[in-house]
Amino acid sequence: MTTSSSPRRSLWGETGRLAAVTAAGVLFLVINVGFSIDLGADADSLRFGGLVALDLAMGVAALVVVLFRRRAPLVVAVALALCGAVSSLAAPAALLALASLATRRRPGEIALAVSVWIAGVAAVGLSGFDLLGRPAPLGEVALLLAILVVVLAATVAVGVSIGARRALVVSLRERALLVEEEQRLREAAARDHERTRIAREMHDVLAHRLSLTAMHASALRYRDDLDDLERAEAVETVHENARGALGELRGILAVVRDPDAADADRPQPTLADLDELLAAESGVDARIDVALTTLDPAIGRHAYRIVQECLTNARRHAPGAPVTLHLAGVEGKRLEIDVANPVSNPPSGPRGFGLVGIEERARAVGGTAVVTAGPAEHRVHVVLPWSPA
């Protein structure tokens, strides 16, 4: 809607400016003719009629040429300065062209156009090439030039002011785009870092599962003293760990392969370690309304990190404020994590990278994360599958 309405507004604006300079030009011409007759000009003479016709012709030409002031600002401004020195009807169009030239804020170009106009007016006044048909006294020419200089100076000042404002708007727009691009790059780098960290955590668990699989497979291979029950248990252990390792491997590949997306060697914490995490935090009202015993360990690890990041984010932006944590869902289907905390002064800048990590962890296992930042409360709602797809 913005792109379609902008050309329309520009067209209406240009039409309005053209109508204004036309009306002003007609007014100038009427005043010039009236004053000339009052001062003794022969309105019935062929010379008077010819000069009025010339004024009209140059004025109409100026109204056409001024439309091209943005394509060739200097040429149009100089040409219309000559016309404005001779034609009353062309003078407002020449002022518009000069103002447009001044928006470029190039002193040499402005000085050239102004000099041409002043020289033209002086030549017309001293030569008598006007409706009166006689050379004007030097005092009148000097007064006319003084008035002209004031008008031209005001026109140039308006044009320079408009040009400075346009330059400021462009500068602010470019700066905003630069800041937006920098933020996008920082978020992309944060996503890459978070994906690498998630993949590393999953790699540690994968290595642990493969170690167990290899150990039990070796037991089956070299021990002949196992009875049927022990052998079946070992086979089941190998099967479970192999299946779990396959799921972990798929998760790692999903994280690394997604284009939009300092760890210890010990096993990564899961929701089974949630009590320890909550014990280290103060002011957290935790409620668990779903049994977590059958939750897949991989989902539990991601859920733990999500809760940890939510609590860290709450402490960073609302230190000392109470935090509510609610774990719910449907056992065997989905796990829902809801963390909310009041905020007195919501951050005005771009969101932190911790929220990016929460979204990436949720997406890595096929879940979703919704962050709601209201004026009085910050809430994170995450839905994770009960087991990896």
TrEMBL record:
<dbReference type="GO" id="GO:0046983">
    <property type="term" value="F:protein dimerization activity"/>
</dbReference>
<keyword id="KW-0547">Nucleotide-binding</keyword>
<feature type="transmembrane region" description="Helical">
    <location>
        <begin position="74"/>
        <end position="98"/>
    </location>
</feature>
<keyword id="KW-0808">Transferase</keyword>
<keyword id="KW-0472">Membrane</keyword>
<keyword id="KW-1133">Transmembrane helix</keyword>
<keyword id="KW-0902">Two-component regulatory system</keyword>
<keyword id="KW-0067">ATP-binding</keyword>
<protein>
    <recommendedName>
        <fullName>histidine kinase</fullName>
        <ecNumber>2.7.13.3</ecNumber>
    </recommendedName>
</protein>
<feature type="transmembrane region" description="Helical">
    <location>
        <begin position="48"/>
        <end position="68"/>
    </location>
</feature>
<dbReference type="GO" id="GO:0000155">
    <property type="term" value="F:phosphorelay sensor kinase activity"/>
</dbReference>
<feature type="transmembrane region" description="Helical">
    <location>
        <begin position="20"/>
        <end position="41"/>
    </location>
</feature>
<dbReference type="GO" id="GO:0005524">
    <property type="term" value="F:ATP binding"/>
</dbReference>
<dbReference type="Pfam" id="PF07730">
    <property type="entry name" value="HisKA_3"/>
</dbReference>
<feature type="transmembrane region" description="Helical">
    <location>
        <begin position="141"/>
        <end position="164"/>
    </location>
</feature>
<keyword id="KW-0812">Transmembrane</keyword>
<dbReference type="GO" id="GO:0016020">
    <property type="term" value="C:membrane"/>
</dbReference>
<feature type="transmembrane region" description="Helical">
    <location>
        <begin position="110"/>
        <end position="129"/>
    </location>
</feature>
<dbReference type="InterPro" id="IPR011712">
    <property type="entry name" value="Sig_transdc_His_kin_sub3_dim/P"/>
</dbReference>
<dbReference type="InterPro" id="IPR036890">
    <property type="entry name" value="HATPase_C_sf"/>
</dbReference>
<feature type="domain" description="Signal transduction histidine kinase subgroup 3 dimerisation and phosphoacceptor">
    <location>
        <begin position="194"/>
        <end position="260"/>
    </location>
</feature>
<dbReference type="InterPro" id="IPR050482">
    <property type="entry name" value="Sensor_HK_TwoCompSys"/>
</dbReference>
<keyword id="KW-0418">Kinase</keyword>
<keyword id="KW-0597">Phosphoprotein</keyword>
